[in-house]
Design a protein that fits this description.
The structure holds two protein chains of two kinds. Chain A is mainly alpha-helical. Chain A is built from two helices and no strands. In chain B, 4% of the residues lie in helices and 56% in strands. Chain B is built from one helix and 21 strands. Chain B starts with a helix and ends with a strand. By secondary structure, chain B is mainly beta. In chain B, a hairpin with a 4-residue loop joins strand 15 and strand 16 (317-330). Classes of the chains: A mainly alpha, B mainly beta. The interface between A and B is large, with 56 and 106 residues.
Chain lengths: 77, 436
């Protein structure tokens, strides 16, 4: 099972690298960024709300991380 | 948000300014941004928590910017101590050794005395190295009555491909110290005390220390690494992929959780408590997470989809899916429904109880946070502009956790009890943000 998981992880990373290769030709020009410039189109929009939510879930579940650092800092779990 | 012509033109100008200044996002173009959020979290008949967070970001003299975050959270109420229900009322003593509490027959033992306040401060300084690269250095500290954490972090991001691709790497190191009230205990040692007169003090604790003066000093080191890439797909679509690695070593046991050792099947009262022992967890844990997020602008609304796959060397696997959809409802106000789905497998050493006479396992915990369960969150956020450059938001969410109430290993009287009571919580959050 763990071997399968490792194999899937490696395949996933390769897929991501392939995707990145494809992404290199993607994108927009500077003058096409009107919508992308909106605050709600930023990944860290609502960062404070997300941080507070993540802290609640960190204290109630066994998982953490992904969006950012996942460890420590609180005795709640 | 309903875009009027003025907003649209402003957005374009912000984007152009940000690009010319060497910043990839619109938010970064604002010299100062502040936001605050207050959350009330309330479980039915259990814990109530309040969290307040204030964040401040300011562009200092070029090329530096500063980000500060202050968080205060408080907790009070009852929390499961890990013991199983019984046909008889059960009396427990708090880990401090004082303030015994009695749990009714057939009820899940909840320790009613949880009360703590935590203060946390984060500071990050970012230096723009050139038009495409920025470097961040940060420090963080958090303190509560029985736990403290100090750490620092560093990260670098670089833009490529006309700023359509951003790659980042960041790491952090933290030193946490747990100082359990009443001291830390040998795993699987009985919670019962046998005083000098030879009469067992029912469920007393070995180190009676209400103020924590003789409390243990149990450190752990935590190392984090995050690799991330974000990509502009088209004028209305962004994606990002993150991989995070977290390794902790040291004291990872919860000093306030116990396990019931139940009478075995050949005893006259199988499944009823025989003894109570402290839990024990491994001294290290390595966690991995792969996270993908899509932001898509759809006719004025913004759809935010994310998925996380998590696994660790404790045997926990989990999947998390989040959907936020922000809808404009006129005059700058927005509604944002949110659904979160979460599923986790149990840790290898999760045991709802131990059995009398069975060999003691190397590690065991009855903490239901390490059990298999599903969780759902439903929520709705309403945001309204209150004056120029500022927004007020109100969010209501409902969190529901459901596990296996009657695990297959239950026997005797344990089959009569709910060994994983549903957890239901309401969350109300009020947020305020302002650009200066």
């Amino acid at each position: 099972m763990r071997t399968l998981r490792k194999a899937l992880s490696v395949l996933g990373l390769l897929a991501i690298l392939a995707l990145l290769g494809g992404c290199y030709s993607m994108g927009v020009n500077i003058w096409e960024r009107d919508i992308l410039a909106k605050p709600e189109m930023q990944f860290d929009h609502e960062a404070t709300d997300r941080a507070i939510d993540d802290h609640i879930y960190f204290s109630k579940e066994a998982s953490s991380g992904g969006r950012g650092f996942g460890g420590g800092g609180c005795g709640c779990n | 948000m309903q875009l009027n012509r003025e907003t649209s033109v402003r957005g374009t100008l912000v984007a152009l300014t940000a690009t010319l200044l060497g910043h990839s996002g619109a938010g970064a173009a604002e010299p100062t941004h502040a936001d605050a959020s207050l959350l009330i979290y309330s479980e039915s008949q259990r814990v109530t928590a309040g969290e307040a967070m204030f964040r401040f970001r300011r562009q200092l003299s070029d090329p530096y910017s500063l980000s500060l975050s202050l968080q205060v959270d408080g907790l009070t109420g009852a929390s499961p101590n890990g013991a199983t229900p019984s046909r008889q009322p059960q009396t427990f003593t708090r880990p401090s050794g004082n303030h015994p509490f009695t749990v009714d027959a057939r009820e899940t033992p909840l320790d009613p005395g949880f009360r703590d306040v935590r203060y946390a401060l984060d500071a990050d300084l970012t230096r723009t190295l050139n038009r495409m690269t920025s470097l961040t250095l940060g420090g963080r500290a958090s303190v509560e009555s029985d736990y403290s954490s100090f750490g620092f972090s560093s990260g670098i991001t670089r833009d490529f491909n006309r700023k359509n691709t951003t790659i980042g790497i960041s790491g952090s190191v933290a030193r946490d110290v747990s100082r359990p009230l009443g001291g830390s205990h040998e795993p699987f040692s009985s919670t019962r005390v046998v005083p000098e007169d030879g009469v067992p003090d029912r469920l007393g604790y070995q180190e009676d220390d209400d103020e924590g003066g003789e409390a243990g000093h149990e450190p752990k080191n935590v190392y984090d690494l995050v690799l991330g890439v974000s990509q502009t797909i088209d004028r209305e679509t962004l994606i990002r992929l993150n991989y995070s690695l977290d390794h902790a070593s040291g004291y990872l046991t919860d000093p306030y959780k116990i396990l019931t050792v139940v009478q075995n099947e050949s005893s006259p009262d199988p499944g009823e408590p025989f003894d109570y022992v402290y839990e024990g967890r491994p001294g290290s844990r390595t966690k991995h997470a792969v996270y993908a997020e899509l932001l898509r602008h759809i006719g004025g609304s913004v759809l935010d989809l994310s998925f996380r796959h998590f696994w660790d060397d404790w045997g926990v696997n989990s999947q998390t899916a989040d959907v936020f959809w922000q809808w404009p409802v006129g005059h700058g106000t927005t509604l944002q429904p949110h659904v979160r789905w979460y599923r986790q497998s149990q840790a290898d050493f999760y045991r709802p109880f131990l059995e009398e006479g069975a060999p003691s396992p190397r590690y065991a915990s009855a903490d239901t946070r390490l059990a298999q369960f599903d969780a759902l969150t439903y929520g709705l956020r309403y945001a309204v502009p209150v004056f120029n450059g500022s927004y007020l938001s109100v969010t209501g969410e409902y969190y529901y956790q459901k596990g296996d109430s009657s695990p297959p290993q239950a026997f005797g009287s344990l089959r009569e009890y709910d060994l994983f009571p549903d957890l239901k919580a309401l969350m109300v959050r009020i947020g305020f943000s302002r650009d200066f």
